[in-house]
Write a structure and sequence with these properties.
- Keywords: Aminotransferase, Folate biosynthesis, Pyridoxal phosphate, Transferase.
- Its cofactor is pyridoxal 5'-phosphate.
- InterPro entries: Aminotrans_IV, Aminotransferase-like, BCAT-like_C, BCAT-like_N, Class-IV_PLP-Dep_Aminotrnsfr.
- This protein has 286 residues and is an alpha+beta fold.
- It folds into two domains: 116 residues, D-amino Acid Aminotransferase, Chain A, domain 1, CATH 3.30.470; 152 residues, D-amino Acid Aminotransferase, subunit A, domain 2 (D-amino Acid Aminotransferase, Chain A, domain 2), CATH 3.20.10.
- It contains seven helices and 15 strands.
- The longest helix has 18 residues.
Length: 286
């Protein structure tokens, strides 16, 4: 990674420590913005089209015009990636409704969006393969978690509650049904079949989730997208979490109780191998 870190802000590359955003920015005052996290392997953004499509969907959902053209985003991301040394890294993209002259709840009549991109190190390959501990918590977030909004205070509180309970992550449920993790997608394996909650406005359409489903189909692993009851977590042979930075990780315990045998399961190990090969192919530019 390059030192010092380089970021992009409103059309310019600059040292991250030199970036300045107005206190009137609506992302700061209201959390009025959206974001993406895009992993890069060998300097190549992973599933870029899917991430940009989700970014466009989030922007449309909050009625914020896309500030860059379809060709503009890949160019900016390439600049930031290479300015930070290429290789393996994650790119954080944030777009807010900008800096109007005064603070009002309604959309400003005139305001240029704030566009910010920064780079962070990716966890080492396999960093989460040994397994995670989790706790079950009631999902107290808003009803539009399909929008990747920067207003993440509920997620922050849920993750902190998990940490305070001695766990790595929270698995969330609402009315007896699993939604997702505080910052991850949930999968279960039972009887050799993979399942994950079906998409609805209460959970994020994860790009890594999509990749896992594609890999399962390609390799003949039975898979369902359906409602997953909270009690199924305790009956599952395996439970996984996935995200852009975790990739796919096994859950070893839920509230101190082992999942299956309390070790990474055979279906996870197969999926990890398939994902690793895809990661390597991305790094080779295939």
């Amino acid at each position: 990674m390059g030192t010092p870190a380089t970021c992009y802000l409103n059309g310019e590359l600059m040292a991250l420590g030199s970036a300045r955003i107005s206190p009137l920015d609506r992302g700061f005052l209201f959390g009025d913005g959206v974001y993406e996290v895009i992993p890069c392997y060998g300097g190549v953004p992973f599933r870029l089209d899917a991430h940009l499509r989700r970014l466009a969907n989030s922007l449309a959902a909050i009625e914020l015009p896309d500030p860059l053209s379809p060709a503009g985003w890949p160019e900016v991301l390439e600049q930031v990636c290479q300015a930070n040394g290429g290789g393996d890294q994650s790119l954080y993209v944030q777009v807010t409704r900008g800096c109007p002259e005064q603070r009002t709840h309604e959309f400003p009549a005139r305001s240029e969006p704030t566009v910010f991109v920064m780079s962070s190190p990716l966890p080492a390959a396999g960093a989460f393969a040994d397994g995670l501990s989790t706790t079950l918590l009631e999902d107290l977030r808003w009803a539009r978690c399909d929008i990747k909004a920067v207003a993440l205070l509920p997620n922050v509180l849920l993750r902190q509650a998990a940490v305070a309970a001695g766990a790595d992550e929270a698995i969330l449920h609402r009315d007896g049904w699993v939604t997702e993790g505080a910052a991850s997608t949930v999968f279960i394996v039972r009887g050799g079949e993979l399942a994950t909650p079906a998409l609805h406005p209460g959970l994020l359409p994860g790009v890594t989730r999509e990749v896992i489903l594609e890999l399962a189909e390609h390799h003949g692993l039975p898979c369902q997208c359906r409602p997953v009851a909270r009690d199924e977590l305790h009956e599952a042979d395996e439970v996984w979490l996935s995200s852009a930075t975790k990739e796919v990780a096994p859950v070893l315990t839920i509230d101190g109780h082992p999942v299956g045998h309390g070790t990474p399961g055979p279906v996870f190990e197969a999926m990890r191998g398939w994902f690793t090969r895809l990661r390597q192919e991305t790094a080779r530019g295939r």
